[in-house]
Amino acid sequence: MSVRGTTHYRSLVSFWLLISSCLLVISVRSAHISDPHWHPATATWYGDPDGDGSDGGACGYGSLVDVRPMRARVGAVTPVLFKGGEGCGACYKVKCHDSSICSRRAVTIIVTDECPGCAFGRTHFDLSGAAFGRMAITGEGYQLRNRGEISVVFRRTPCKYPGKNVAFHVNEGSTGYWLSLLVEFEGGDGDIGSMHIRQASSPNWLEMKHLWGATWCIIGGPLQGPFSVKLTSLSTQRTLSAREVIPRNWSPRATYTSRLNFSP
């Protein structure tokens, strides 16, 4: 089972803690997603043997992890890949080596959580039981899961969400002076390096601050919709602008879907 000694956390965050955290600026560093090489790591699993794994997680995706396209593809990672939340949404292929029990196919997982109990400094994946079992030869999923921690190799892979476009969930507690957005279904790189918002009445893009997980926020005001949102990926600095994706009469806890997405 999982090597984590604590449960997945940050499913609930204090409103005032969010506001104070929003004032922090997170530095961004670029990486390359187009890495064809496999790298060594270790892997465990958690939850039900054939289950989806996370019940939310430190990225803030909530119930999205229980439905397609995330369902059974979730994974928690160590800080080296979680990157303080900036690694949320990134996709990886993971496969194991032991030919006596492992197939040659890799499982694709989406970073939805951090593995806080895993050893700091090493690369480790804590996968859903379903994702872990898919690395096994047909009929050997139980035996593979019974081994606990195994050696694996991994590499970055583009995120693909067929039929899905980038969406923005307005977090609870948002007002005309403090706006917090959770980014969902970002294709391609999957991760976010910077995020800007523009009011319809202004030509200027305003920088949002990374809050935690896949959540970004801005303090200002009064902020008046409709809002356009611009994303820049962390890994390759690709940019996407969703024009007036959040309407004038937006409301907290609502999700607004754009008409576009990054290509894989």
Q: Which key phrases capture this entry?
A:
mainly beta, 15 strands, six-stranded mixed barrel, five-stranded antiparallel beta sheet, 264 residues, disordered N terminus
Q: What does this protein look like?
A:
This protein is mainly β and 264 residues long. Helix content is 8%, strand content 32%. It is built from four helices and 15 strands. Strand 7 and strand 8 form a beta hairpin. The longest helix is centred in the N-terminal third of the chain and has 7 residues, at 15-21. The protein is elongated and about 65 Å long. It starts with 14 loop residues before the first helix and ends in a 7-residue tail after the last strand.
Write a compact overview of the structure shown.
This protein is mainly beta. The protein is 8% helix and 32% strand.
Largest sheet, spatial ordering of strands: 1-5-2-4-3-6
Shape: elongated
Number of helical stretches of at least 4 residues? 4
Largest sheet: 6 strands, mixed, barrel
- Alpha carbon gap, first and last residue: 33 Å
Mean pLDDT: 84
Rg from Cα: 19 Å
What is the helical fraction, as a range of percent? under 10%
DSSP strand count: 15
Element string (H = helix, E = strand)? HEEHEEEHHEEEEEEEEEE
Strand content: 25-35%
- pLDDT under 50 segments (min length 5)? 2-32
